[in-house]
Amino acid sequence: MIEKNYQPADIEHRMARIWEESGAFKAGRPERKDAAPFTIVIPPPNVTGSLHMGHALNNTLQDILCRFERMRGRDVLWQPGTDHAGIATQMVVERQLMERQEPGRRDMGRAKFLERVWQWKAESGGTIVNQLKRLGASCDWSRERFTMDEGLSRAVVKVFVELHRDGLIYKDKRLVNWDPKLLTAISDLEVQQVEVRGHLWYLRYPIEGRSFSPEDPKSFIVVATTRPETMLGDTAVAVHPDDERYADLVGQHVILPLVGRRIPIVADDYSDPEKGSGAVKVTPAHDFNDFEIGKRHGLPQISVLDQEGSLSLVGNEDYLRGLPMGADEFAAEFDKIERFAARKKIVARLEEFGFLERIEPNTHMVPHGDRSGVVIEPYLTDQWYVDAKTLAQPAIAAVRSGETTFVPKNWEKTYFEWMENIQPWCISRQLWWGHQIPAWYGPDGKVFVAETEEEAVGHALGYYVEQEVITPEQGHDMAVDPAKREGFITRDEDVLDTWFSSALWPFSTLGWPDDTPEVARYYPTNTLVTGFDIIFFWVARMMMMGLHFMKEAPFSTVYIHRLVRDEKGAKMSKSKGNVIDPLGVIDEYGADALRFALTREAAQGHDIRLSPHLVETNRNFATKFWNACRFAEMNECVKPDGFDPKGAKETLNRWIAHETSRVTREVTETIEDHRFNDAAGAIYRFVWNVFCDWYLELAKPVLMGEEGAAKAETRAMIAWTRDEILKLLHPFMPFITEELWAVTAKRDGLLVLASWPRKSGVTGEQLAAIATAGPVVDPIIPPVIAALDADEFSDPAAEAEIGWVVDLVTAMRSVKAEMNIPPSTLTPLVIAGASDETRDRAQRWNDTIKRLARLSDISFADHPPEGAVQLLVRGEAVALPLKGVIDLAAERTRLEKELGKADADIKRVDAKLANEKFVANAPEELVEEEKEKRAAAAERRAKILEAIERLKKAS
User: Fold this and answer.
1) Strands 608-610, 564-566: parallel, antiparallel or unpaired by DSSP?
2) CA distance linking residue 430 with residue 381, whole number of Å
3) Quick one: the chain helix, strand, coil %, rounded to 5?
4) Which terminal CB of the chain, N or C, has fewer other CB atoms within 10 Å?
5) Residue 605 — left, alpha, or beta (φ > 0 → left; ψ -120 to 50 → alpha)?
6) Mind telling me which CDD domains this protein's record contains (predicted)?
7) CA 18 from centroid of its chain's CA atoms
């Protein structure tokens, strides 16, 4: 028995428990051992994380695909797991220690600290997994993995060692994003660009051989900089080769103010003659662009900052080399001064000696650490790198060949741009939580990379015996007695970038490097669903690693979704106070309503605008369908065993079978094409409009009539249609559909494992057999289905008749609304020049049309009467005689005023969009909002024009 009121909270917990206890989501079910596999790997959320709207969208779309393919008979593996999130997790535990006034990480020591992190992970690390279950994610939770579990750690070590052996991992001294607070290199994804109001300092650099005077422009060259404190590490001044102002200076030298270093003036295209003075200082150790200039011109790299962002001058051989007398005193005076304090002191000293020409206000973007909040330093340091350029070549080729495709297709251009300009990938992090790099250093710094310490010891002993650093006897003794080799080699303290282990996710989660049955069956995966912001950080790296180690691309399709924004189109952020908590939304409206709201808005290539009202609208949809199922139950609508909708006799019932077949095809094809919003929109319209508003409404007279064949058939058809809806709607709204499936009839099994509606009655078992008859690839499935569905149910005659009734009533309602006719006012209808077929339809459905369209009478005439509003319904003229019902002239005046308002709205928006400055500077969401306003006004204008035209004909 269906409860009177739809209460999501009562349903969702119970359904989740039933699914889990039944093992409904498990891959490798015995009955599907011969079915085609379908695999999705979850983008592993941070173990520290909690569910946000991006997660909700991403996992809803994945779940739709998994539930859809599971119902189509596939052996579905949705592989779940979490990421150890190195820096984020370490910060959580360190903050916890500080709040509890316990010893800090360094006081505690590495081993004890890592124990505390694992303890925290055991106690709190499963939060987001439980939240994903609340959303309805149908992952195979029995296979949950963690990027630092034993198996994945073994995979990480093997990959590192093999790539190092092949020369694709190496150590190098390069610039990295350095966080002076967290004391580690960080990835570009962890850098946040913040607009800062700062200054542009114009500095005078004396030209060598000329007597410097602030009043003599020929004695110096002016450089503009936002970072005067790094000038101490300058090794050149660069000008554009075509800049005539400096043509005679290229090849000469300047003397670096305050420092006295002699540095060259070089010609380089990077210098922009239109910016500042056209000359720029080059500090290769403190700027990424300068680093590249330095490489092009063979310039020294002089680092003048330490890891904490303070000046490091005393004992800095690179800095002091070749400096004149007095450099030691200057170094001592400025050493260990914090960078921003040093900036003020250096600027003051430059001004004192006449080297400061002027200061201008300057607003610019400054990189900040997204977790520490401090300004990030480009820092020159030894780190481990992956030769990403070499690994990228097969990954580029895989997308170019179509082995992997992006949806939408335009993201392939972004992928290619990144991959073709890829830089070495810095994979080392100065943290404790993470995969410690499997590299050991000998007494002379010689590096030994191995999967285990024992293996590294063996390599080291062999090397040092060969080099005659130790004797063979010593080597033997150290090999057999660990105590004798204590301190002989030391392990690298750094850990690997979190993205390194995540790059192996599609195959490491399946048990690689072991030759497991799961690897053989479920790799490569099918569809990856992810956000556009990590195409480079994650998608590209999975492509590189998958192709290198597995010799196949890790997925055939990459579906890219956009951001979830607030209802005004603004990006959600805590600072703006516009963050919508998905768990709060689920508490208020239910998970199904949130899922359906997100899916209906998830158009390819567009951001999603979400508001509580939108979710409420979709909760109302669920309530409407719930009530429709209760209506069916109260009217004893049950599907008899063996019921075949193709055998229906009643036109209305054949019509709903025709429409159900049509929506089944539409939903199936749009999910296959990853047009999730179109699929959700199709089932929404069918349930709300076709099933609830029309079919059940048109069936009411039959249900309220006498018992007989028509009533029995209608009851059966309502139950059959309801069941087909439950199947079609299940991937989108799993909780309510599973509940209604259970309570509407006695059934064998759960809806989640039921067969997807087959337009020709193809069973899941038949589909599975067909799918495995050839190569197990996705593209074989849709053509097979298409071939088998050639005889799908279709009844054009039933559609023509019932469709005519629906269109006629809809047109009447629309015209009355346009003309401001109160709904209670009954009006006559004249059908002009009707065909015999239309006359018969009108007579058969006379009472129904009059009731639904609020008509006093339906008559026939050769021509429309005067003073009637005319319109076409399926090619035939119908007329509403409104003379005497409304003042036609006054109504026309009102509509013309409305037309004027619409024109004014369009003109106002066009003026904004024609303003190049507005389009260039306004936030993307604001420009999109204006375009939407124009589209709405244009649509309103078109409808008003139609109404005015009808009134003209009636006058």
Assistant:
1) parallel
2) 11
3) 50, 15, 30
4) N
5) left
6) Anticodon_Ia_Val, ValRS_core
7) 30
> If we measure between CA atoms, which residue out of 634, 623, 645 comes closest to residue 720?
645
755/753 Cα distance (integer angstroms): 7
Strands of the sheet with 447-449, listed across from one edge: 447-449, 439-441, 490-491
List the strands of the sheet with 236-239, edge to edge: 253-255, 262-267, 236-239, 279-282
* Cross-strand bridge partners of residue 858: 829
C-alpha–C-alpha distance, residues 21 and 486, integer Å = 52
- What tens digit of pLDDT does each residue of 503-548 get? 999 999 999 999 999 999 999 999 999 999 899 999 999 999 999 9
Phi, psi of 35 (to 5 degrees): -80, 155
Task: For domain 890-954, give the fold.
Answer: Helix Hairpins (1.10.287)
Of 380, 453, 465, nearest in space to 185 by CA: 380
Helices within 306-367 (DSSP H only):
317-320, 327-334, 339-352
Residues that constitute the known binding site: 574
Distance CA 744, CA 3 (A): 11
Q: How confident is the model at residue 789 (pLDDT cuts 50, 70, 90)?
A: very low
- The answer to whether residues 75 and 28 touch, using CB atoms and an 8 Å cutoff, is yes
Task: Report, at the CATH architecture level, how domain 796-886 is classified.
Answer: 2-Layer Sandwich (3.30)
The residue type found at 468 is E
Task: Find the length of the chain.
Answer: 955
Is the separation of the CB atoms in 266 and 250 below 8 Å?
Answer: yes
Say if domain 198-369 classifies as CATH 3.40.50.970.
Answer: no
What mean pLDDT do residues 761-767 have?
A: 43
| Secondary structure (3-state) at 473 | helix
Supply the DSSP string of 104-157, one letter for each residue: -HHHH-HHHHHHHHHHHHHHHTTHHHHHHHHHT----GGG-EETTSHHHHHHHH
pLDDT, tens only, 796-817: 999 999 999 999 999 889 888 8
Q: How far apart are CA 213 and CA 948, in angstroms?
A: 80
Distance (Å, rounded) from C-alpha 804 to C-alpha 824? 23
In angstroms, rounded to a whole number, what is the distance separating the alpha carbons of residues 640 and 654?
17
> Do residues 610 and 584 make contact, with C-beta atoms less than 8 angstroms apart?
no
Domains 796-886 and 890-954 share a fold: no
Question: Mapping DSSP to helix (H, G, I), strand (E, B) and coil, where does residue 28 land?
Answer: coil
Q: Are 135 and 12 in contact (CB under 8 A)?
A: no
Name the phi and psi angles at 755, rounded to 5. Answer: -80, 135
pTM > 0.85: yes
Beta-bridge partners for 869: 880
Give the pLDDT confidence of 380-439 residue by residue, as tens digits: 999 999 999 999 999 999 999 999 999 999 999 999 999 999 999 999 999 999 999 999
- Domain map of the chain by residue range? 198-369, 612-771, 796-886, 890-954
Homologous superfamily assigned to 612-771:
Isoleucyl-tRNA Synthetase; Domain 1 (1.10.730.10)
**Cα–Cα distance for residue pair 117/71, rounded to 1 Å:** 41
Q: What φ, ψ does residue 257 adopt, rounded to 5°? A: -55, 150
The pair of structure tokens assigned to 23 is: 């093992």
Helix axes 8-22, 582-589, angle to 10 degrees: 110
> Known binding site for ATP: residues?
574
Q: How far apart are CA 158 and CA 154, in angstroms?
A: 6
Q: pLDDT band for position 768 (50/70/90)?
A: very low
Distance CA 395, CA 541 (A): 9
Task: Report pLDDT for 214.
Answer: 95
Burial class (CB in 10 A: 0-12, 13-18, 19+), 752: buried
Cα–Cα distance, 300 to 290 (Å, whole number): 11
How many other C-beta atoms are found inside a 10 Å radius of the C-beta of residue 144? 17
- Could you tell me the two tokens for 571? 């990006």
Locate 800 and state its tokens.
Answer: 């023509």
**Is-contact 385 426, C-beta < 8 A?**
yes
Distance CA 549, CA 510 (A): 14
